[in-house]
């Protein structure tokens, strides 16, 4: 009889195996259910194999179902199946079941393999659960499973991403002390994180300073350190790293040169920048559009606009390295030098060169013409901008409205404000206040009140500035009863009037024998 049942069990196993190999997982599930309900005995190995199949097929809900069915029968998964199950659950972020499986493993004296631990740690770090990740590593060590280079890399990356650089450095030092040589990903995470945090000396010491000769650093690490020292204004150190980089068989690339170009142009070291460009070409590294745009930026910053323009037309355009950023750089410089007319001519040439203006182009020109009091051209540019499908942002719309209000062009200001709303850009309280200021200054307080009421119904909520503008306008038009009502609303919001304004309102009420409030 026992022999017969054993053969029966082997037949079920063979049938399930053949279904799995054929990709007929639903048939395999059906057969496994038949097997568990038959007279033949089912063992832990059967559940291990079957749950392993479900995990490999990402059928995690079913895997959990059979796991809960297995446990009351006194069965358990082996360490390998537990590890694969935990790894799979990380894909669907099932933290509750992962923790249960870990606890069940620990009770059995099992420990997940490093693969499973690392996948779980990576998930925790991606979810910014850094403290929980550190706790998992502590448990991992207590259970006798030593972290590997991947474990350390995941933790360092997660800690740097969370801005916890002191902890990242501590983990790094522990890793190096244990004889691990960090890989490219760990080095890049630490260096980029520390440099962003302004700790470039520490980044240098922990990598080139400590590990020199032990590992081969990539161009990415060298470039990150060079950039960090340039950002800190220490070009001598950046140049020294570039020399060290070359002496170690790692030739500077386009990124290296562009980082140094950026520094030279920002500091107006233009002769050095031009020398660097020539050195690039001699080294077989062709400057790209970014390289030329950096030099263009430096020339414009130094007010050498003629040279900048000639370089763009004669050199950049000839090499096909001229883009919208190039034009924007010169247009901005011309506008800053009060040459908006020349900037506009350059803007008109863009289309003929096959370069389409962007939001930045229009924003520069619109602000320039507004500052020169030529609001008609600014409005024309705004219409042209929206006609191209380029939407100005709220800040630009508000800037235009504010300027038009200050120059008394209220009809146009109101039109631009309405355009903003029609284009689906919701005005904020600053936008409303800009138009309300203009309306009150133009003695059009009734229209300002309509906007104020619109804010109450649609948002945004009026702020302290809004209330003061409205009350001041109403006082000037001697609409004291209405001013009192707005004052009450203001106090309900927790705002208070300036002493001189409240005194003016009270005195005006007294002189008109108003009775809307008790003095």
Structural description of this entry:
The chain is mainly alpha-helical. It is 73% helix and 0% strand. The protein has helices at residues 2-21, 25-37, 44-56, 60-70, 79-91, 95-108, 114-126, 130-142, 149-161, 165-177, 184-196, 200-211, 219-231, 235-247, 254-266, 270-282, 289-301, 305-316, 324-336, 340-350, 359-371, 375-387, 394-406, 410-422, 429-441, 445-458, 464-476, 480-492, 499-511. Helix 17 runs antiparallel to helix 18, helix 18 packs antiparallel against helix 19 and helix 25 runs antiparallel to helix 26. The model is unreliable at 1-7 and 514-519 (pLDDT under 50).
What structural keywords apply?
73% helix; 29 helices; 519 residues; mainly alpha; disordered C terminus; disordered N terminus; single chain; extended
Secondary structure blueprint with pairings:
Layout lengths: L1 H20 L3 H13 L6 H13 L3 H11 L8 H13 L3 H14 L5 H13 L3 H13 L6 H13 L3 H13 L6 H13 L3 H12 L7 H13 L3 H13 L6 H13 L3 H13 L6 H13 L3 H12 L7 H13 L3 H11 L8 H13 L3 H13 L6 H13 L3 H13 L6 H13 L3 H14 L5 H13 L3 H13 L6 H13 L8
Helix pairs in contact: 1-2, 3-4, 3-5, 5-6, 5-7, 7-8, 7-9, 8-9, 9-10, 9-11, 11-12, 11-13, 13-14, 13-15, 15-16, 15-17, 16-17, 17-18, 17-19, 18-19, 19-20, 19-21, 20-21, 21-22, 21-23, 23-24, 23-25, 24-25, 25-26, 25-27, 26-27, 27-28
Question: In summary, what is this structure?
Answer:
The chain has 519 residues and is an all-alpha fold.
